[in-house]
Design a protein that fits this description.
Number of helices: 4
Structural class: mainly alpha
Number of strands: 0
C-alpha cells in the first residue's frame, strides 16, 4: 500500500488527474479521500495559529497598546 500511495502521489505531482492516478495505481478514491482527510487533520494540529503557538491558543489576546510601549 505504501508503494502504491507513493506512486499515486508521484502521478498527481506530474499532473495526472486523480481518477486516472487512482486507476493506474489501484488505489480507490475512498482510500485517497481517507488519506487526504487524515493529512488535513494532522496539518491543522501542527500549523501554529496566527499570533502564537498552538499551546498559546487559550492565552489572552495581546493589547496593541502594550505591543508599542503603551502607557510608559
Amino acid at each position: 500500500m505504501h508503494q502504491s500511495l507513493r506512486a499515486f502521489l508521484a502521478l498527481i505531482a506530474n499532473g495526472v488527474p486523480v481518477a486516472e492516478a487512482s486507476a493506474q495505481t489501484g488505489i480507490s478514491l475512498e482510500v485517497v479521500q481517507a488519506v487526504a482527510r487524515r493529512g488535513l487533520e494532522q496539518q491543522r494540529q501542527t500549523v501554529p495559529r496566527p499570533g502564537g503557538a498552538p499551546e498559546d491558543a487559550d492565552a489572552a489576546p495581546l493589547d496593541p497598546a502594550e505591543a508599542v510601549g503603551g502607557d510608559e
